Amino acid sequence: MAGNNNLNSAKSARKDEFYTQLTDIEKELKHYRQHFRGKTVLCNCDDPFESNFFKYFVLNFNRLGLKKLLATCYTGSPIANRQLSLFDVLGTAEGTENRPYKAVVTTVYDKTGDGGVDMLDVAELFKTGENELTELEGDGDFRSPECLALLAEADIVVTNPPFSLFREYVSTLMEHEKSFIIIGSLNAVSYKEIFPLLMNNRIWLGYNNGDMAFTVPDDYEPRETRYWQDENGQKWRSMGNIAWFTNLDIKKRHEEMILVRRYSPDEYLKYVNYNAIEVTKASDIPCDYAGQMGVPITFMDKYNPDQFEIIGISRELVRTISEDVKKNGAYPQIGRFYLNIGETKYKKVYERLVIRNKHPETPREGKINAD
Ligand SMILES: C[S@@+](CC[C@H](N)C(=O)[O-])C[C@H]1O[C@@H](n2cnc3c(N)ncnc32)[C@H](O)[C@@H]1O
């Protein structure tokens, strides 16, 4: 249908169609097993027959001890109905197969009697009505009333939401006070809607942050870098700045970062426009510095709230720029820290989080290193 094609291209243009691999989901979710027993899980950006999130939860339903699994997908997702669809399962009328639908799973067992549980059992359990697979009334938008009703029912939301709606997606989850494990861009750490949640220890990063590869729809344009097609013609994209965001307690956020460097004023320059030292790599945080330190946003991957306090982000901490920096600094920019790199030369530093060590070691000379 022409209308649908237009819709699909418009959606693809938004570049939201990145599909998560089962191995990446397994690698992350193995750290959260204790949270799932007796819980209702919602995957609300997930075609039940295409999403590996749905697959992970339905195939591990009994092992995790889930109470219920809910999944909804969005109108016209290009990947929808490519393998096993609502059409195959329910034999719905031709032309309706692109409709968004919801899956409600409360039981998973070897329905086909072939000795193991797989997606065919899942399809069979939908056909017999032991689980429910029904069309949604609306378009499956996570903000639609019927999807919000499912959200209200859920205990934990787990998915890779549309990158373009990440801010709104997180605020919807926070408003509804839901637990979640979701994928986003590491850059979201510095978003004005997301950073305060991290700073105030309401959300944090999961385990496997950094590189991740995703399958993308056929109509995605090839790219010079981080793009390939596999032997089956499947297109792939990878990104180096992917992060898992969660508000479920995990061991990792209680692990102390081992600090091996010591402070020296020659090695750690102070910013000219803020009273903190520049630490270019989180692994270089000195163990004996008690004052404020500027670190890259990748620090969030190592953040343990018992060890460090997050004070703010450069964007919000410096709202003015001196005449000297304006005149002599390259690309003067409000909201950035500057270092003096000789005479009247100033170097602009990337966005920094400002942190403080809650328990700094005593310096060798016995004098506290701070402001
Ligand atoms: C990054 S993809 C990930 C898909 C799937 N969760 C996965 O991990 O493989 C985000 C998905 O959200 C869907 N989507 C886009 N806008 C949406 C909305 N407003 N509500 C719900 N889903 C949406 C897209 O169609 C896309 O399939």
Layout of helices and strands, plus pairs?
Layout lengths: L1 H12 L8 H8 L10 E4 L8 H8 L1 H4 L3 E5 L13 H5 L10 E5 L13 H9 L4 E4 L9 H9 L2 E4 L6 H10 L3 E7 L9 H5 L4 E2 L4 E7 L10 E3 L5 E12 L30 E2 L13 E4 L12 E6 H4 L5 H6 L9 E3 L5 E3 L4 E5 L14
Parallel strand pairs: 1-2, 1-5, 5-6, 11-12
Antiparallel strand pairs: 2-3, 3-4, 6-10, 7-10, 8-10, 9-10, 12-16, 13-16, 14-15
The structure holds S-adenosylmethionine (SAM).
Tell me the radius of gyration: 24 Å
Number of strands: 16
Give unreliable regions as ranges.
1-13
Q: Into how many domains do the coordinates divide? A: 2
Overall 3D geometry? elongated
Estimate percent helicity: 10-25%
> Tally the helices: what do you get?
11
* Share of residues in strands: 15-25%
Query: What is the succession of H and E elements?
Result: HHEHHEHEHEHEHEHEEEEEEEHHEEE
Q: Could you say which small molecules are bound to this protein?
A: S-adenosylmethionine
- Class by alpha and beta content: alpha+beta
Walk me through what this model shows.
With 371 residues, the protein is an alpha+beta fold. The chain folds into two domains: 2-251; 255-357, no CATH class. 22% of the residues lie in helices and 20% in strands. It contains eleven helices and 16 strands. The longest helix is centred in the first third of the chain and has 12 residues, at 2-13. Mean pLDDT is 90; it is low at 1-13. S-adenosylmethionine binds next to helix 3. S-adenosylmethionine (SAM) binds next to helix 3.
